[in-house]
Amino acid sequence: METSSSRVWFVTGASRGLGRAFTEAALAAGDRVAGAARDISPLDELGARHPGQLLALRLDVTDRAAVFDAVEKVTAHFGRLDIVVNNAGSLFTGMVEEFSEAAARAQFDLNFFGALWVSQAVLPQLRAEGSGHIVQISSIGALGGFPSTGLYSASKFALEGMSEALAAEAAGFGVKVTIVQPGGYWTDLYTSSTATSPNPVYDPLRADLEKQWAEGSIDSEPRLAAEALLKLVASDDPPLRLLLGSMVYDVAFDITRRRMDTWSAWEQVSRAAEKAVPAPS
């Protein structure tokens, strides 16, 4: 049910996985949602259940002009924009050596450039309103590079670097930015992933990875991520980063501690590489 005080969301990748869970949670909270996806047919029954609350938009976020047009449609339809969730993404697995140029660019086009185009398109509206919250759905893959997901991690590293700068640039206009780093959830990210043509020299490593994933994978219901997102956007002081899940929380601290130990061990070399000198003539 729609209320005059309901918030307006723009969610990309809204038809499935985490995006679907975010959309359902926002609608259930009485908010209005513009749900964007390449295939919007799965949103039909949601629209029927929440008449007047859902605007389904067929959108390929890698098309910059289409993204800007979509944002105009959202603001024309709902009159405002409050929460933007850059969720659209894909996983292209393979060892770094195996990636073709086309595959590498495709991974970045969706995971990085898609979020960049959306962020650019919504900022004028949010800036004019003097408020708003952009939520960038990143990944555990942005905590470090892992075998067979190197290009996926690279795209998420790029997303986070851009988003940190965006947060600092937008803060003065009252616009908040949060990077969300989820762990494993039962979505089709893995089942719909694309893989490179395998180089047999990596077969032993692939076997080890498959064993690790079979023994150590922890996946949760997307509903839990959606509940966390609702708490995030309700906060008056949201964090720049939010970890979702105990596994990713522990991995984040472990990786950070190991980095700090390495930096400390090499401190003398690091400090010796800097010495102020006059500017060259």
Automatic annotation (TrEMBL):
<dbReference type="InterPro" id="IPR020904">
    <property type="entry name" value="Sc_DH/Rdtase_CS"/>
</dbReference>
<comment type="similarity">
    <text>Belongs to the short-chain dehydrogenases/reductases (SDR) family.</text>
</comment>
<dbReference type="GO" id="GO:0016491">
    <property type="term" value="F:oxidoreductase activity"/>
</dbReference>
<feature type="domain" description="Ketoreductase">
    <location>
        <begin position="7"/>
        <end position="189"/>
    </location>
</feature>
<dbReference type="InterPro" id="IPR002347">
    <property type="entry name" value="SDR_fam"/>
</dbReference>
<dbReference type="Pfam" id="PF00106">
    <property type="entry name" value="adh_short"/>
</dbReference>
<protein>
    <submittedName>
        <fullName>SDR family oxidoreductase</fullName>
    </submittedName>
</protein>
<dbReference type="InterPro" id="IPR057326">
    <property type="entry name" value="KR_dom"/>
</dbReference>
<dbReference type="InterPro" id="IPR051911">
    <property type="entry name" value="SDR_oxidoreductase"/>
</dbReference>
<keyword id="KW-0560">Oxidoreductase</keyword>
<dbReference type="InterPro" id="IPR036291">
    <property type="entry name" value="NAD(P)-bd_dom_sf"/>
</dbReference>
